[in-house]
Design brief:
The structure is a homodimer of 445-residue chains. With 445 residues, chain A is an alpha/beta fold. Chain A folds into four domains: 4-18 and 248-376, Rossmann fold (3-Layer(aba) Sandwich), CATH 3.40.50; 28-71, no CATH class; 82-242, Rossmann fold (3-Layer(aba) Sandwich); 408-440, no CATH class. The first copy, chain A, contains 17 helices and 14 strands. Chain A has helices at 8-16, 28-38, 44-71, 82-89, 94-113, 150-163, 182-191, 201-210, 227-236, 261-272, 287-300, 307-317, 326-336, 349-352, 369-372, 410-426, 430-440; strands at residues 4-5, 119-123, 126-134, 137-141, 167-171, 195-197, 220-222, 241-242, 250-255, 279-284, 319-322, 340-344, 360-363, 400-407. Chain A has a six-stranded parallel sheet with strand order 1-11-10-9-12-13, sandwiched between helices. The first copy, chain A, has a five-stranded parallel sheet with strand order 6-5-4-7-8, with helices on both faces. In chain A, strands 2-3-14 form a three-stranded antiparallel sheet, with no helix packed on it. In chain A, α16 (410-426) packs antiparallel against α17. In chain A, 59% of the residues are buried. Chains A and B meet through α5, β3, α10, β13 and α15 of A and α5, β3, α10, β13 and α15 of B.
Chain lengths: 445, 445
């Protein structure tokens, strides 16, 4: 199953150069439903623009109509009631509830550790600094089906709560025509989500971005979703903040001859069972290890509940590259900038300082991504598609904003004013210069 | 000149509700030049896509051709040489050089104060944490004409340098067919920019996003620019990080009857001289003050070198609203979420805690925005158009990224693993669960 490349350049070209993601085409049934609902055959982008227009103009009534026409669902109410959340607990395995609570506490503890505070630097009786405050309200989206996981709700809502966001709302499509799944409702409750709305798709993103009678306007919209959700997030961006549009998940393992082939194989399989588009990659200094891992994968695939997905993912995007040394492995890894970078080799800590581009680095065989996905503490929402070159895993900064503080004392203003006058005049701004000079002459208090 | 609204609701509706910015239409000459260069009459978005395509395919040669055809310029070389930077110093007023150096030092000192560090939390012999590292390479853009200010180069390049970015490059269009302006070159040098390229427009953004033979690919593109530059930034976004697309600048002054009418008038004029689209707004508890400010503005306008711009801006977007109390003033200000919020009243510090949405808050009459634009220390690049609701002034975080660190000890993995297994199984991921169990059974080292 596992392709092995023993030539570094071929491996890089075949495995580590991502083709630019193309806009997926619509299944026919979806296209037909869209056409019926919107009254015209529209490209996905235009359909989403029309959905957003309708929600902005029609509010709750438009939301209900779109949910009927596009999702074939008719929720009794847009908002899920507290009693329905309580009832959801009775339909979820108590062991899962405990595990979610445990995970939430680990996530809370981790994100609390890097919560920044407002600060001021006093100088000459005045001060400059940063006022760091949480966003007032954020909106999470949790999709139906793949990517609509309870753990993902924890991984965004808990850091938002830690940041001090006043209100967290969640939109999730009804799964049986009425309510989001019980595990979605329980995860939202465990994570501290304040209000849940049984609504999905582009219309949910529009409702959170602009507000309706029932759904409050938020300051930031986050969460994974299908093509329509992603397009809607792009279109509302600027009127509201959005998170990154997530691409397929990816893991790159760096392993030497000391790695346990079973562990490596299982980590690659865990990655590839996510999604047929997921990428599970191995870079190793040992051809022997690569061969043993390939055999382990073949042996273990049949027992997996999602074995077909894993096999499809490995066939499309998976593989191993054999390299002469770990320095080459790290060079390849930094060039690829994986979402997850796992170091399974003799002295993994010694490689951490060479990691330049990765969403998360997993140090040693006990630090497996499958734990990082749930209970290690850091959020599992990480940059994909090579964007780890310039972006970060979700963290409390995603829910904070800065207001720069300027509070100059008269002495400080007299000290720093003259240079400002010089630059203002060079830039042609005479009112700027005069506004400063007016103070220097004693104007203002 | 200054419109005064004594009814709060009318003032809010007329002054404080921003119309959504529309895409500006092209001047005819620009359209004609585009058509000739690209061989077809294209909408701005399509023209930019074609320019990006040509730069990606043709590299330096395409850049030269586009610069010839679109800018009518023929720089001898794409890169500005060190000797040309040295020569630029001889064409700039030494007082300006000193003022820029002074400003750069203030900016450096401020941004150094909030430079975050990587951190780890050790637990049971392992650790979790955040590796915080600078981006490797960033690209700044400085436009010709309005918005192409030396101070703006300092306000982005100095924080990038503080963050530890390895290489900072700057693209700026040649102003006389050969080189960017002398003050641009000097500001870039003072700010610590490593390489300057004499190239402008959408083609410069494309070159920095994808790289050419001469211009290196960067991880993030920042800086103001015209419609083409903004569209190019949007189109390359995702392949490279971009900063926010800046809207027209805006200042909201909150003043009571104790404010100095001359200071208020000059601050409004300083704001409005930026740009005919700039917004200079006053919210005051004193109708008498508003009237005196209006008179001061009329008296001072004729003396300003950019008086016509200021008058146009005040006519379009400027004005005063009289409110019954400061609490109402702060409510209006938070609803508007201005780029700059200036507090000119008896006890300005007491209002700081009520500021929820603003790019920068200027406390008291000596803390005027005209100083904040140059020498106070915080960057003058701040969120416009109401985006202060959810975004921040430029700061060192814009040049940093996080890699989450997962380094579990065997003991910690045994402790946090079981809950992860429970959630993985509930989510249907059997390979995840098995990867964890394999370790718990003693697999891996």
């Amino acid at each position: 199953m596992l392709r092995i490349f023993t030539d570094v350049e071929t491996g890089r070209r075949e495995l580590l150069l991502r083709a630019r993601a193309e806009e997926s085409s619509l299944p026919e049934a979806v296209g037909a439903r869209l056409k019926e609902a919107l009254g015209a055959e529209l490209e996905p982008g235009a359909a989403v623009a029309e959905i957003i227009r309708r929600v902005r103009a029609g509010g709750d009534e438009a939301l209900r109509q779109l949910t009927r026409d596009l999702d074939g669902a008719e929720p009794a109410a847009l908002e899920v009631e507290r009693s329905q959340v309580r009832e959801a607990y009775t339909r979820v395995d108590p062991a899962l509830v405990s595990a979610l609570r445990y995970a939430a506490e680990r996530i809370r503890a981790f994100h609390t550790m890097h919560l920044p505070r407002s600060w001021m630097q006093y100088e000459s009786g005045g001060a400059i600094g940063q006022i760091i405050r949480p966003l007032e309200r954020v909106g999470l989206y949790s999709p139906r089906g793949s990517a609509g996981y309870p753990s993902t709700i924890l991984m965004s809502a808990v850091p938002a709560r830690v940041a001090g966001v006043d209100e967290i709302v969640l939109c999730a499509p009804p799964v049986d025509g009425a309510l989001p799944s019980a595990s979605t409702l329980v995860a939202a409750d465990v994570a501290g989500v304040d209000r849940v709305f049984a609504i999905g798709g582009a219309q949910a993103i529009a409702a959170m971005a602009y507000g309706t009678e029932t759904i409050p306007r938020v300051d930031k919209v986050l969460g994974p979703g299908n093509l329509f959700v992603a397009l809607a997030k792009k279109q509302v961006s600027g009127d509201v903040a959005i998170d990154q549009i997530a691409g397929p998940t990816e893991t790159l393992l760096v392993a030497d001859e000391t790695a346990d082939a079973g562990a490596v194989a299982l980590d690659l399989l865990a990655q590839s069972e996510h999604d047929p588009m997921a990428s599970a990659l191995l870079i190793t200094t040992s051809l022997d290890l690569a061969k043993r891992v390939a055999a382990e994968i073949d042996a273990r695939l049949p027992a997996l509940s999602r074995g077909a997905v894993a096999a499809e993912s490995l066939r499309r995007n998976g593989g191993a590259v054999v390299v002469p040394d770990l320095a080459t492995a790290l060079d390849l890894a930094n060039g690829y900038a994986p979402e997850h970078l796992c170091l399974l080799c003799r002295d993994p800590w010694s490689l951490v300082g060479r990691v330049r581009n990765a969403g998360g680095v997993f140090v040693g065989e006990q630090s497996l991504e499958a734990i990082g996905d749930y209970t290690a503490g850091p959020s599992h929402i990480m940059p994909t598609g090579g964007t780890a070159r310039f972006s970060s895993p979700l963290n409390v900064w995603d829910f904070l904003k800065v207001t720069s503080l300027f509070a100059l004392s008269p002495e400080k203003a007299r000290e720093v004013g003259p240079a400002a006058v010089t630059i203002a005049e060079a830039e042609g701004f005479t009112a700027h210069a005069e506004a400063i000079r007016h103070r220097q002459r004693g104007g203002g208090t």
